[in-house]
Specification:
binds magnesium ion; about 45% helix; binds adenosine monophosphate; 5-stranded parallel beta sheet; alpha/beta; globular; Rossmann fold
Length: about 270
């Protein structure tokens, strides 16, 4: 999975990252879906351990263009995990109250506690993506945010949070197909927003903003993974495997039981 991880300090050119790539899995879609089932089981076990040990905190950040697959990734990768101990937070257009504070205020209070996995569906990165592309604040302000975000994430990491950030990478053609599917399928129409068409026109600007995010904020303590995401099944495999590898690296163990349990007789 290291091939998709951005080395700190390296310059990312997204045109060199193929969203159709599937180099790490030999099989086809059906086999890929089967492989995911085994990963779901493994993740369930690891999450239970994380919860029981009550030591580590895990933050998963998902960013993507519209239709990029954030919702689908959450649904498929976390299928079967115990909802107690996993929380999804979706960041929308900030409310008046949120706007009255600094941009990290609403984010910090949603970060995971011990034993918890929190999934950010969008995140503080919107404050250097949509905010930058639409000039919602001047460059003088957003330009400082990369360093601020690195410092913020470093604080979380030093205080015991494991941070994983995924950019689900699709291309313009794939987005067209997915938007069309939302129009065509009655059960998907609710997801279609005319606003998405406006954002689509700004694709090159978004790619530039994403390249800066990936180049400036992939750190040792909070690395970015670029996920080839045109194929949903492959995207799920990459995210699940990266997460599992990371959780396995935490060397977790179940808490020591109380002393003297061997002699207990329940009457
Ligand atoms: P969705 O994820 O489709 O429900 O849409 C959420 C919308 O909220 C997207 O259009 C985001 O760009 C927008 N959004 C999220 N965070 C911010 C932010 N900090 N400033 C402005 N818009 C945001
Ligand atoms: Mg949307």
């Amino acid at each position: 999975m290291k091939r998709y991880r951005i080395k700190p300090g390296s310059k990312v050119d997204l045109s060199k990252w193929d969203p159709n790539e599937k180099a790490l899995f030999e099989g086809d879609k059906e086999e890929g879906k089967k492989a995911l089932l085994a990963l779901n089981d493994r993740l369930e076990t690891l999450q239970e351990l994380l919860y029981a040990e009550h030591k580590h905190k895990v933050l998963v950040v998902l960013q993507a263009m519209d239709t990029g697959g954030k919702d689908g990734t959450i649904r498929h990768v976390f299928e079967g995990v115990n909802p107690q101990g996993v929380r999804v937070v979706s960041f929308k257009v900030p409310t008046q109250e949120e706007l009255a504070h600094d941009y990290l205020w609403r984010v910090h209070k949603q970060t995971p506690g011990r034993g918890e996995i929190v999934i950010f569906n969008r995140s503080h990165y919107e404050d250097v993506l949509v905010v930058r592309v639409h000039e919602l604040v001047p460059e003088e302000i957003w330009g400082k945010r990369y360093d601020q975000i690195n410092a913020f994430e470093r604080t979380l990491a030093e205080e015991g949070t494991t941070i994983l950030k995924f950019f689900l990478h699709i291309d313009l053609e794939e987005q067209k197909e997915r938007l069309q599917a939302r129009l065509d399928e009655p059960n998907k129409r609710w997801k279609f927003s005319l606003g998405d068409l406006k954002e689509r026109k700004l694709w090159p600007k978004y790619m530039q903003a994403y390249e800066d995010v990936l180049s400036k904020t992939s750190t040792k303590w909070a690395p970015w993974t670029i996920v080839p995401a045109n194929r949903k099944w492959y995207r799920n495999l990459v995210v699940a495997t990266t997460l599992i590898d990371t959780l396995e690296g935490l060397n977790m163990s179940y808490p020591q039981p109380e002393e003297g349990l061997d002699d207990v007789v329940i009457e």
